[in-house]
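2024-03-11 09:14:02 DEBUG pipeline.ingest accepted 1 chain
2024-03-11 09:14:02 DEBUG pipeline.ingest length=250
2024-03-11 09:14:03 DEBUG pipeline.predict start
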Amino acid sequence: MYELEDLEQHDYNVNQKLLLKKLTYIANHDDSVHLVQVELFEKGSYLIREKQVVKGYYFILDGKVKVFNTAANHKTQILKLAIRGCVIGLSGFNSAHYGASALAEDDVTAYFISQSDLKDFLSLHQDLSLLLIKTLAFKVRYYEIRQKHLSLFPATERIIDSLLLTATKFGTKTPKNIIIKHCVSRRDISSFSGVSLENTIRTLRKLQKDKYITIAPGTITIENKEALVAILRNYCCPNSHHQKGYCYIN
């Protein structure tokens, strides 16, 4: 849960929509249709693989994607959860190889732009370059804030943070709760929160016992989002009465 100004959040949402609109125009205009391809990925397939030679970049149109890399001990570390409007592979823009893998958590539709085409197009269209820079700069700031929080949070708060972020990205809202069916394995939650598997299992059991969540095979349901948010807010700023500006972004 991260404190961001309302105007910043609004600007990010606007820039992200404009970026997708611009890419859609490029993908359908006669003079540039050859620069963008629509690609489909079935659940469980890779968009890109870590250490693979960079070929291009994906702009998610629909679906859910898990981005992760592998540590020296062969354990995976989830870096982010990507949905519509997110860019996959751009960290390899100036590199020869991708630094992370991206796995489709369900069926995914994405625009693909090759490395050479994107560089050429950005050099010719300053408006697209500016939109891309603004969108990525905001996300970099956001992820820096998240890493700061994770370094300060105890294990329980880290896991709550990961559950809420996953619910925001991948969850389905109902009138009473939020149902998550992707990235809900103990290993995924452990990886995303940076907490040991054993500690993750204990914490999830306690959160379920306290009726904050319900755990079923392949599903975690957030039963009391407000209570979980309050736990993080109280840890971040126990003496503050500021109640706005806390958010998770795409």
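2024-03-11 09:14:41 DEBUG pipeline.report The longest strand covers residues 56-62.
2024-03-11 09:14:41 DEBUG pipeline.predict end
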